Amino acid sequence: MDSISLSSLSSLTTHQKSSLEKGGYKNLSDLLLSTSSDISRTTRIAPLEVTRILEAACREHAVPINKIKDLPMEGEEKFTTGDAELDSMLGGGIRTGMLWEVVGESAAGKTQLALQLSLFVQLPSRLGGVLGSAFYLTVASQLQTTRMEQILNTHPLLSPSLCSFANIQHASVPTIDKLIFVLSKSLPQYISANNQNSSSRPLKLIVIDAIAELFHTSKRTTTQFLVERSRRLSEIGMLLHSLASKHQIAVLVLNEVSDTFHRDTAPLDSGQIGYKDQFRWFGRADSVLGEDRKEATLGLVWSNQLNVRIFLSRTGRRRYLEESEHSRKIQKSASATSSNISAGDQQPVLIRRLTVVFSSVCDPASCDYVVTAQGISVIPGSAVLLTARPAVSTATPPGTTHDSMSPHGDFTQMQKAQLAPLDIGHIVDSTVIDSRYSTPDNEPGDDEWDAFWERNALPECVFEEAANLTESS
Q1: Is 379 buried (19+), middle (13-18) or exposed (0-12) by CB count in 10 A?
Q2: Peptide bond preceding 210 in cis form (omega within 30 of 0)
Q3: pLDDT above 70 for 414
Q4: CA distance 83 to 237
């Protein structure tokens, strides 16, 4: 609209164009972005005539109304995550033309999911892919090619003949300005050049790992900082949606979490909803007890940019999976590394929780999953549909049942009632697990804090001195 000159409008008279030009109005956007009173004052045109000028300009360049049935279908293209149960939870897999967010604490599996999606997007349609390529943007880390190669060589659906690192582009975006430049300039140019090359695969996945790192600051948080952050987030969201919609690309953004604090706040007027109550529905997962202790960063402004939010949680639970709970891919992964380990030496599996907080293409749901050498794998039968959420998260006395522990619904071919979130009778104290033994399910490195305190345990005398000081005071 900036390029539409007022002199080209046939609906305006020569006198009107001359008066508007004298008032400083040269383009149609200058005219439409000004109020009638401002135009009348600067051009000395009567207010009633200004209204007629605006109506004539709008009619001449009005956008035609299209019927919904005539619009092209968007978001119908999708590719697999590599796990059939996870695909079912997400409405058939990862759909293009949408903005997806995966949020979670460190070592929850966010990067694991992003890496495997960068490979599965390359598969042919007969295997659930779209024969596409990926563009991986990192903020403060490097692309984990070693881990990606491990997934490529161990997952039964993947092979070097179908997937290649040549189909994954990588760029570092350590600042907000560089990310905006890449999204507004570099990526559109790359997509245009890539589409003209018949031998190149179309770009179908963009990954940002991780957006919250761009807004880390050691300065005091002020109102001005929050306003500027909201403006930049809105700009980034607009650019991502433009790329996703125009080129039918799935955009996957990784995000971080922060601790939640329950404070007593002043009562609100009738009908008002506070920020804490609003964000509870969009920024937290609450499928199991304690899962709502973390919430997504960047607030409601960023949440409103998303089509889907997936929350990954470290539950701290370990259990021995039954044979019926092992999918074939988990068994194959475990057999490659535990062939020399007897059944009695089998190690418990570290359980994590995945929750679809909100989505425009599927219902909110939750499931248990493990991370193996092949990537993220949902434990069969653990998925439940979340049809309702508890009104208030409160502590419950021992022996009572928390609202979030009850099943909220069911999927087809999923168990209708289950207590898998608490793993009754299967919980293993993580303090008695010897971290020197590792399997693909035990994931060396994910319990780095446990290993740290094992190597740097404080002597007993420190605790005795602290107890003596407490008694003497």
Answers
A1: buried
A2: yes
A3: no
A4: 28
CA-to-CA separations, 53 to 4, 9, 37, 261, in angstroms, rounded: 15, 10, 13, 55
In angstroms, the CA 101 to CA 209 distance is 10
Q: Report pTM.
A: 0.68
Per residue in 312-370, pLDDT tens? 998 878 877 666 555 544 444 444 444 443 444 567 888 999 999 999 999 999 999 99
Alpha-carbon span 113 to 116, nearest angstrom: 5
For 415-449, write each residue's pLDDT tens digit: 333 333 334 333 433 333 343 334 444 444 445 55
User: Residue 182 half-sphere exposure, CB side, CA atoms within 13 Å?
Assistant: 20
Answer yes or no: are the C-beta atoms of 30 and 9 closer than 8 Å.
no
**Dist CA 131 CA 121 (whole Å):** 6
Residue that the structure tokens 């399997």 belong to: 439
Give the per-residue SS3 of the chain. Answer: CCCCEHHHCCCCCHHHHHHHHHCCCCEHHHHHCCCHHHHHHHHCCCHHHHHHHHHHHHHHCCCCCCCHHHCCCCCCCEECCCCHHHHHHCCCCEECCCEEEEEECCCCCHHHHHHHHHHHCCCCHHHCCCCCEEEEEECCCCCCHHHHHHHHHHCCCCCCCCCCHHHEEEEECCCHHHHHHHHHHHHHHHHHHHHHCCCCCCEEEEEEECHHHHHCCCCCCCHHHHHHHHHHHHHHHHHHHHHHHHHCCEEEEEECEEECCCCCCCCCCCCCCCHHHHHHHHCCCCCCCCHHHEEECCHHHHHCCCCEEEEEEEEEEEECCCHHHCCHHHHHHHHHHCCCCCHHHCCCEEEEEEEEEEECCCCCEEEEEEEECCEEEECCCCCEECCCCCCCCCCCCCCCCCHHHCCCCCCCCCCCCCCCCCCCCCCCCHHHCCCCCCCCCCCCCCCHHHHHHHHCCCCHHHHHHHHHHHHHC
Radius of gyration of the chain (CA): 28
Amino acid letter, 236 = I
Residue 90 pLDDT > 70: yes
What length does the chain have?
A: 473
Euclidean distance between CA atoms 211 and 236, whole angstroms: 10
Band the pLDDT of 235: cuts 50, 70, 90. Answer: very high
Q: How many CB atoms lie within 10 A of CB 141?
A: 11
C-alpha to C-alpha distance for 428 and 276, rounded to whole angstroms: 34
Can you tell me which residue has the tokens 């009005």? 62
Which tens digits make up the pLDDT trace of 384-409? 988 655 444 333 334 443 333 333 33
Amino acid (1-letter code) at residue 353: R
